[in-house]
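Hi there, hope your week has been kind to you so far. Do you reckon you could talk me through the fold, stretch by stretch? Thanks so much in advance, here it is.
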Amino acid sequence: MTTHDPILARLAALKTATTPDLKKQWRALFASQPPPFTRRFLESRLAYRIQDLPYGGFKAENIRRLEQLAEAADLDPELAKKFLTFIISEVIRHHEKLQK
């Protein structure tokens, strides 16, 4: 027996949502105006946020470790966090593509 997962349903709905609807969701989830980037960018960031709110983001100790590694390598810790988020979203996108 399968149960309805509202998070999975929201993620699936992103693919068929109109761009104005994606921007509306952005405003609701981020409490800010959506950036002027591509639809794919909006979809991927919304997908991350939809999962982040109920499941939580990165563990605090992992963020601290990433910051330490970035500082040790003389890199910007904020850029390192953004890069990690990008890598994770690309892995998710790749897995979604393979499932189709």
